[in-house]
Amino acid sequence: MLVNRPSHTAQGAAMHRAAHQLVDQPLIFEDPLALRIIGREAESALRAGHERWTMPEAANMRAFVAVRSRYAEDCCAESYERGVRQCVVLGAGLDTFAYRGRRAGVRVFEVDQPATQEWKRQRLTEAGIAIPANTEFVSVDFERDTMREGLKRARFDFSRPAFFAWLGVTPYLTRDAIMATLEIVAKGTVAGSEIVFDFAAPAGDDPRAKAARERFAARVDAVGEPIKSEFVPAALTDELRALGFTQVAVTGSALLNARYFDGRKDGLALRGGQIMRARV
User: Fold this and answer.
1) Measured in Å, how far apart are the chain's first and last C-alpha atoms?
2) In a domain? residue 3
3) pTM of the full predicted structure?
4) Cβ atoms of 68 and 168 closer than 8 Å
5) Any bridge partners for residue 247, and if so which?
6) What share of the chain is helix, strand, coil (3-state, %, to 5)?
7) Integer Cα distance of 247 and 194 in angstroms
8) What gap in Å lies between CA 120 and CA 94, rounded to an integer?
9) CA nearest to 69, candidates 21, 106, 117, 104
10) Model confidence over 22-47: pLDDT tens digits?
11) Which of 156, 197, 215, 254 is the most buried (most CB within 10 A)?
């Protein structure tokens, strides 16, 4: 990922979340700010129905972007019920969790690389979305800086548990950067902390899955954000347990379809995707 400009993949994810609000009914993930934060021009283009994010061929990715946000926020709600009052959004992009204010008493730390963070601040200003007093911006380049140092600068309380959401980021990082960040959560936070993140898994033998992966890889490589890592789910589960996580579970597309897409009449469903949840 280039550090001197906003992330193209973060922008793409925001467009998928916004398109989901318009195209898919019923909504998997309701985000009343998703269209505002992408800007008026982009919103108008989506509403016109001519952008690729609204097209049938984008349905699988649009569904996964929506469901990973829904799943992470459902897990965050569970952690809130357990008394967790710190939420860290890693690689926040144009995520709007902090600005929807659904849970009182939560401190939100948005961690991202500086150029993307500055771009988001501009988007918030242009959209007239106020930054809540409980929200802290933390500039970190995952390949060069440590998340721990960034959070220390932002007065994150390491003596209290936290919920970490890390969506749409790990495929574009090296294995070393990913494992270093996970180790900080596993060994540097207190019991009760947890992290939810999605990751790329090998495409397997399905020709359609392989072709879709190749098309996506070519697209992100063309914008300077190539896929750098993928994990076999069972092996990653073992690695997380070795780091010190006590509860580790992968939720794949079959389970996500059963939980969030069952009974839909529009045929929207996942054809792939893996989300990890691990608790300290």
Assistant:
1) 29
2) no
3) 0.94
4) yes
5) 279
6) 50, 15, 40
7) 9
8) 6
9) 21
10) 999 999 999 999 999 999 999 999 99
11) 197
